[in-house]
Design goal:
Elements (H helix, E strand, L loop, with lengths): L13 H10 L7 H13 L11 H10 L10 H15 L3 E2 L11 H7 L1 E2 L1 H14 L4 E6 L2 E7 L4 E4 L10 H8 L3 H5 L9 H18 L3 H14 L4 H13 L3 H14 L4 H13 L3 H14 L4 H12 L5
Parallel strand pairs: 1-2
Antiparallel strand pairs: 3-4, 4-5
């Protein structure tokens, strides 16, 4: 989900489509309805449009093949069953390509049989919703995994490792997640549907950004932050686009917002430092580069940028 981590799209944006849905009284509520709406909007005018896939029919066909559909499996048996369906029966495999919407939008994940963490999570959660299972998305700084939690049983589900039960402590240790961010609920807690959809919109923003469609990327990042104001990745990614576009003051605000949620993000510190340099505020830039190096002494980007301050401003 990095960074967290577009095609030529229609002039009607996400916000406009949502406003239309509200005005017409057709606001979707289930995860399926809302993901279908996202896919439909994405496909309108897209140069790689897949038509209007019937995501609900896909889910129905998959659920219809399960021998457990009337028995309501619980706990580890439910997780084992869904793992077999997703990774064995459907053969969905992990991909690291964040630029391809086929790896994010669940109907395309089902069709292409591959996805990255958010895309596989979306497909998995759709099956869990239809089976009424208490499975939730969980966010780390640059990743999304799943968790079954019914008040008694708690099982993590790592979709990039075929559903392996990776303990919380391993995520915290390997990603160096700050305790402050965990206490504040930024990382490692069960996400609501809105908060998971914020992850989807953030990753759609990445797709647009990679294709330099910054207007649509901004709409996706703003939608993501509206659904989850505590999503640092969306603020960071939005700040990166603003930095590229020369909107340095706004970029600083977005990087600062991201850092309030995730204070040890060395890339947010480094890139805010670059924005300060463009605003001719070298002292503030120096503090950010030094702060990044205090967190990660081997972070070459910040070290090089700090070194550049001794020889003059970066080339424009």
């Amino acid at each position: 989900m990095k960074k967290y981590r577009a095609l030529l799209f229609p002039t009607i944006g996400v916000a406009a489509a949502l406003a239309f849905a509200i005005d017409s009284g057709a606001v979707p509520h289930s995860l399926l309805d809302r993901l279908e709406a996202i896919e439909e909007q994405f496909n309108i005018g897209s140069i790689d449009a897949h038509g209007a896939p019937d995501l609900g029919a896909m889910v129905d066909r998959i659920i219809g093949d399960l021998p457990i559909q009337d028995s309501g499996p619980e706990g580890s048996r439910a997780v084992q069953t869904l793992n077999r369906v997703i990774f064995d029966q459907l053969g969905i495999r992990a991909s690291q390509d964040l630029k391809n919407p086929d790896n994010l939008l669940p109907s395309r994940v089902f069709e292409s049989k591959q996805g990255y963490c958010v895309g596989i999570a979306a497909a998995y959660l759709l099956l869990a919703e239809r089976l009424n299972l208490p499975i939730f998305a969980v966010a780390t700084p640059s990743h999304v995994f799943l968790r079954y939690e019914d008040g008694v049983v708690r099982i993590n589900i790592e979709t990039l490792q075929r559903g392996a039960n990776v303990p919380d402590e391993q995520y915290v240790r390997e990603q160096k997640i700050p305790a402050k961010s965990i206490r504040r609920g930024v990382f490692m807690r069960n996400l609501t549907t809105d908060e998971f959809l914020a992850q989807v919109h953030n990753n759609l923003g990445v797709v647009y950004s990679e294709r330099k469609n910054y207007e649509m990327a901004a709409a996706e990042y703003e939608t993501a932050l509206g659904l989850d104001p505590h999503l640092p990745a969306a603020a960071y990614n939005y700040g990166n686009d603003l930095l590229r576009l020369g909107k340095h003051r706004r970029a600083v605000r977005l990087f600062s917002r991201s850092l309030r949620l995730y204070p040890s993000d060395v890339w947010a510190l480094n890139n805010r430092g670059l924005a300060w340099l463009k605003m001719e505020k070298p002292d503030k830039a120096k503090r950010d580069f030094q702060a990044a190096l205090a967190i990660d002494s081997g972070f070459e980007a910040a070290r090089n940028n700090l070194g550049s301050l001794a020889v003059g401003p970066p080339a424009k």
